[in-house]
Amino acid sequence: MSSHIETDVLIVGGGPVGFTLAYDLGRRGIDSVLVESAPGTGLELLAKAGTFNERSMEYFRTLGVADDIVNAGFPLDYPRDTVYVTSLNGFVIGRDYLPSAAERVPYPETREIPTRCPQFVFDPLMARKTVELGKTRVLYGTGWQSMVQDADGVTSTVEDAEGRRTTIRSRYLVGCDGAGSNVRRTAGIAFSGNELDYSVSAMIEFGDLERYHPHGKAERFMFVGEDGKTWANITSVDGRKLWRLTLVGFSERQSPDSNDFDIAMRRALGSDDGSWTVHRVMPWRRSHYTAERFSEGRILLAGDAAHTTSPTGGHGLNTGLGDVSDLAWMLAALVQGWGGPRLVDAYSAERRPVAVRNGDFSSRNYGGWVQETRWDALHENSPEGEKQRRALGEQMNERLQHEWHSFGVAMGYRYDASPIVVADGTAAPPDDAGVYVQTARPGHRAPFVKLADGRSTLDLLDRDTFTLLGFDPTCDASELSAATSGIPVSSAVVVDEAAAAVYERRLVVVRPDGMVAWRGDELPADLGKLLRAVTGWA
């Protein structure tokens, strides 16, 4: 016998993107159903993403979960260095130093620092938070099968492990079901791009690895062959005993038993000492693919269902969380009735260019791994070998700077071509991987400026409303509030010369996701037109 469920939003896929979206929607009062084919969350040790950049941590701060992630993740005193070697007991080629969380000082444009938290820890954390919130019905062991879309919503069919079918009627459907997204395929959305090559990863339990090499603690070791190309890397997953060993550069997809990871570990160690346990082997494709659009009517895509990137730089999951930050307020606006139909198109117009941009940065990073340059003495214990290793180390530090130091990628994406952003005719700052230039230009993140009372400009923003920031003590938001017609608007007056200088205009309207929608020295005569434009009605 089939059953029937009705909800505001159906989310397909219970990974980090799906659960973060459900949690954000729930905090905005929006009901959802989340279906996940696996019997639970975090049941396997997956060799997947686990670094959240500064922008993601700012987003988690607005959700109230940032401290939970910090406390559940890496030990705060664990160094974040990357070491380039021929093997752990072979020759050192170079080292990129990056301090631990305890030692790291935030960039002046934010209060946050990148945070490591393995996905097998993060996913259950967000799942638990979502269930506790009580606005999401989670259906584990349930596969999404099909859908029929009409003008008012989407009717989906799902099936559990016992073959019981349920129809779910939702106003919107979001596919967060990974690179092979069934939702995307069923919606007829093309997925195109480049396949870079294939890799295979294994989760290795090796609790005392530091005993068996002379380099001390580091987050990552990269192993360089005689041709100067990286053949493998081993990365700490939890800062304790779990490591991810990845073999790279295959031209064909590997099967789980194609490579002997015990032999690979011996080669990486450069010795026969030590013992470890191989927990899981996972072949995967390194690719840069992007959906041709992120929406089809009331069907939307987020995370890997919409885009894939090489993991070199850690931008894949962070790009997916950026999707959620954008999409959650838009869905809430649509469900609550104050958002207009152009929001759906705006989501694709805003997030697709970011996905392409971040994927391009990641692909260039990977090119630095596998760039072939012949070194005839790289593995020799000789003056010439030492000279070549030093030269290659300098080259790798230079080539991979933007992989380990990518503040500009994290913070500098912009929505200045969006149909719900009101341009002001100013020029955009450079979009550099390593450098972030703050600007209150419409379509950019609202700048962070510390205020005299200990707060920052970001603390004045209301994530449930559009916020009018006034940089003059005479500013009055009452005129704007009177024109809202049900659109949630709040206001704050900022009497601070440094903040006024950064924001450059007397009045700035910031969206619920922290992006600037409009700025000017005087409110326009037709305030209703402005508000309709930035909420998708105009």
Distance between the termini: 46 Å
Extract low-pLDDT stretches. none
**Could you tell me the mean pLDDT?**
91
DSSP, total strands:
22
Which structural class should the secondary elements be placed in? Answer: alpha/beta
Describe the global form: globular
CATH class call of the domain at 3-74 and 114-192 and 288-360: Alpha Beta
Notes on the structure:
This protein is α/β, with parallel strands linked by helices. Among the domains are: 3-74 and 114-192 and 288-360, 3-Layer(bba) Sandwich (FAD/NAD(P)-binding domain); 414-534, Glutaredoxin. The chain has 14 helices and 22 strands. Strands 1, 2, 7, 8, 9, 10, 16 and 17 form an eight-stranded mixed sheet that branches. An eight-stranded mixed sheet has the order 5-4-12-13-14-11-15-18, sandwiched between helices. Helix 1 (16-27) packs parallel to helix 4 and helix 7 packs antiparallel against helix 8 (342-370). The two termini are 46 Å apart. 47% of the residues are buried.
